[in-house]
Description:
Blueprint: H1 2-18, H2 21-25, H3 39-61, H4 63-73, H5 79-82, H6 88-102, H7 110-134, H8 145-167, H9 171-185, H10 192-207
Amino acid sequence: xxxxxxxxxxxxxxxxxxxxxxxxxxxxxxxxKDIEERLYGLIYLxxxxxxxxxxxxxxxxxxxxxxxxxxxxxxxLRRHELKGRFTGATNFFISIFLVYLIxxxxxxxxxxxxxxxxxxxxxxxxxxxxxxxxxxxxxTKNKTLEGTIGCIIGSFLTISPFIFNNxxxxxxxxxxxxxxxxxxLITFYxxxxxFVPVSTLIVLKIFF
Length: 208
């Protein structure tokens, strides 16, 4: 049972890591405060969000599509996803689209947006793998101290080289990593793929 759950989690987080390409692509698209400057990025992210929403609708409404979908991804779905709610992928695409749409009006730098998403995705993978394999000290029902520490370390290792190279200071990397770890820990009713990066960016904007 343990190995089955662990490898399912490993498969899910492998898809997470492969998805790093989606926020990284934004670094190569025009970016600015005006909507027109971000048009290509909005079309790109909006299309991904719509496709993901349509897939979620199809897996609920179409029996044939549902069988195919569950054959491929059934072992990595969360309980709430099995009940028909949006998957983590859909929440991720909706959140990054809304962030890219709204946050530039508040002068949020693109590199911070990308760093938070990349840091969260790696940190979340570290949290799941370490928590499942070595987690002993329970903090909440589904979260362990070891997993939370793994999340913070994974996030920090991911974003610190970029931050140090651009800002010659590791304090923002430490701050962002701790925020990601805290928000990952207290995610209860909102999908973490939406809640964690959005909450982290809001706090980041307040303090930076």
